[in-house]
Amino acid sequence: MNYFPDEVLEHVFDFITSHKDRNSVSLVCKSWYKIERYSRRRVFIGNCYSISPERLIARFPGLKSLTLKGKPHFADFNLVPHDWGGFVYPWIKALAKSRIGLEELRLKRMVVSDESLELLSKSFVNFKSLVLVSCEGFTTDGLAAIAANCRFLRELDLQENEVDDHRGHWFSCFPESCTSLISLNFACLRGEVNLGALERLVSRSPNLKSLRLNRAVPLDTLQKLLMRAPQLVDLGIGSYVHDPFSEVYNKLKIAIQRCKSIRSLSGFLEVAPHCMSAIYPICGNLTFLNLSYAPGLHGNKLMKLIQHCRRLQRLWILDCIGDKGLGVVALTCKELQELRVFPSDPFGAGNAAVTEEGLVLVSAGCPKLNSLLYFCQQMTNAALITVAKNCPNFIRFRLCILDPIKPDPVTNQPLDEGFGAIVQSCKGLKRLSLSGLLTDQVFLYIGMYAEQLEMLSIAFAADSDKGMLYVLNGCKKLRKLEIRDCPFGDAALLEDVGKYETMRSLWMSSCEVTLGGCKSVAEKMPSLNVEIIDECEQMEFNLDDKQKVDKMYLYRTLVGHRKDAPEYVSIL
Amino acid sequence: MVLEKDLNLDATELRLGLPGSSEESLRISNKRALPDMNDDSGVAAAKKCDQETAPPTKAQVVGWPPIRSYRKNSLQTKKTEAETGGMYVKVSMDGAPYLRKIDLKVYKGYPELFKALEDMFKFKVGKYSEREGYNGSEFVPTYEDKDGDWMLVGDVPWEMFINACKRLRIVRGSEARGLGCV
């Protein structure tokens, strides 16, 4: 290998694209490290506080694409205060100052200000792609800057962000010269959109493959857009309400039939169920269907739609599909790999329309199932054992019983055996979320069998520290552990602090760990940031080490304490 | 699982709520969680437990069920809209001095709508048939749809109708004959 010129090695490295592999390559020797770092184009940073932008820029001067994640996962469920952190501005500022020719930025759970977006739009001539997932802090003014200044923009993908919609004409900010769009997703915007500007934009974007509209885009505009973009592969429908005997609806039918390339369908943010027949002609080609924002679609109309979707690989649906509807899925969608069933009435009278029966049906009918997110009314051990037998290929298994400590309703037993069967059968399981009544026993099983587990989410479970210890000792590949409302204390936390350096992060809230215990971790492991989030500011007045900590978030880092933490966050 | 009062399990007891909050108001009783119990005394104990302590409603548990705020907010919006958004349309009748307004969402179907219109305008709608419309009645209910066309009320399913209807007009039977013969 010493005799190969650098260019040859670089060429070889071009074929190595996965982050893990690239990281491995860089560890072989100094020479490979050097070549790898200069040829690296894409970097993924799972925790924005684990490294600084300056060090990133120094190591990878050829960087083109950056992915950053900010807040911990439980921030999705309001467990992390809004201004906790995860600001993207310092990253953009540092990159703008450098000579990095950034082309792509993908952010998840970060705070993105309009100022950041404006700076981004003006600093990188070849900027092509902006993907924001579950972010907040920006308005349509920031989007206007992106539209106006990024001359070669290919992708603007906004997924489930909280955007302050000023209803300005940000759409009109795309210049006439912008013809490079491949992907445009603004489904999460709640305000009106300049429909004329949208139509013109789509007309001059011949490469447009993915278009996801928001609720303000009515059916007649949809029809016009589809006529102009029959090459679409991914479509998100905004409003889908119309009189099925009108001329517009007839025109829509024709337009949809021309879209022979559509493989992915989502949206229906507003839906008239009697208009669904227009969609049937393209259903047979669909591999991804997301109806999780369409509560208006249920019962027979929904089942009829699904019966047309024989090639579906991924289905996101609301629980109003019912066990019966899942039976239809099981009979129809033999290629199904991923199923997500969301609650349509999370705070209702506890009558989620799906139970263990629906899940068992799908597991029996869809042998390729490998990824599950399932919100349900109840679950039994017997059902989980059956599912484990039917589908040994699960990579992701996330079960959420709406009553968090509900036992098996048939036997009144905890669900230890059921989940135990899952981890024993699914040898490739990487992600697991538990719920229902659970004792230490389930964690014994997890520690014993879940060898590939990387992420574990626990809530309202276990009897003692033993539960947490089983997991920490057994799961060698564990990267993220998030725990809420469990009786785990200092003994579990302190048993093996070195373990946390092998993980990205640990979250514990409403558990039994004390301030003293957390301080101990911080003392022993300087490579970790141990954050105490204390909104009630109890800690200020009571610095007793025996005080229980409400929320603790610890993560490994190369750059020490962060400087942007708010007052109620103490970094030990 | 039986709550053992003899062993001091307070330290590791599962609770909902912040540490330091009152035990009484937020304790989860395992017995309360089990609906089908054979033991009568157990049931009585559970009921007593319920009365003594305020069982936490789901809404009290922060961050549960674990769905993204964005999704939760979307559902709330849709629910509120579905519940409070009325569908008010103007109703005119040939010869009447002024128009009225009615909320279509209030009615479950055509019979209720016609009854309301009959009461409001003091007329009789007459019998509907697919072939002949309201042939024989003095007054015929029509509506303007989203395309701006004037249609006969009653041809399409109710759901479809209320989504399409922009306004109502009750026309004299003689004028409406054309509509009934499509």
Automatic annotation (TrEMBL), chain A:
InterPro entries: COI1_F-box (IPR041567), F-box_dom (IPR001810), Leu-rich_rpt (IPR001611), Leu-rich_rpt_Cys-con_subtyp (IPR006553), LRR_dom_sf (IPR032675), Transp_inhibit (IPR041101)
Keywords linked to the UniProt accession: Auxin signaling pathway, Developmental protein, Nucleus, Ubl conjugation pathway
GO molecular function, one term: auxin binding
Occurrences of domain F-box (ranges): 4-45
GO cellular component: nucleus; SCF ubiquitin ligase complex
Pfam families the UniProt entry points to: F-box_5 (PF18511), LRR_6 (PF13516), Transp_inhibit (PF18791)
Pathway this chain belongs to: Protein modification; protein ubiquitination
Primary localization: nucleus
SUPFAM superfamilies, sorted: RNI-like (SSF52047)
CDD domains according to UniProt: F-box_AtTIR1-like (cd22159)
Biological processes, Gene Ontology terms: auxin-activated signaling pathway; pollen maturation; SCF-dependent proteasomal ubiquitin-dependent protein catabolic process
Intracellular or extracellular location(s): Nucleus
PANTHER family: F-BOX/TPR REPEAT PROTEIN POF3 (PTHR16134), PROTEIN AUXIN SIGNALING F-BOX 3 (PTHR16134:SF45)
Protein's name in the database: F-box domain-containing protein
Organism field: Gossypium aridum
TrEMBL record, chain B:
PB1 domain: residues covered: 86-178
Signal peptide boundaries: none
Main location: nucleus
InterPro entries (alphabetical): AUX/IAA_dom, AUX_IAA, PB1-like
Gene3D superfamilies for the chain: Phosphatidylinositol 3-kinase Catalytic Subunit, Chain A, domain 1
Keywords annotated in UniProt: Auxin signaling pathway, Nucleus, Repressor, Transcription, Transcription regulation
Gene Ontology CC annotations of this record: nucleus
Entry-linked Pfam families: AUX_IAA (PF02309)
GO-annotated biological processes: auxin-activated signaling pathway; regulation of DNA-templated transcription
Location(s), subcellular: Nucleus
Recorded family membership: Belongs to the Aux/IAA family.
Subunit structure: Homodimers and heterodimers.
Function: Aux/IAA proteins are short-lived transcriptional factors that function as repressors of early auxin response genes at low auxin concentrations.
PANTHER family xref list: AUXIN-RESPONSIVE PROTEIN, AUXIN-RESPONSIVE PROTEIN IAA17
Protein name, entry field: Auxin-responsive protein
Species annotation: Gossypium aridum (American cotton)
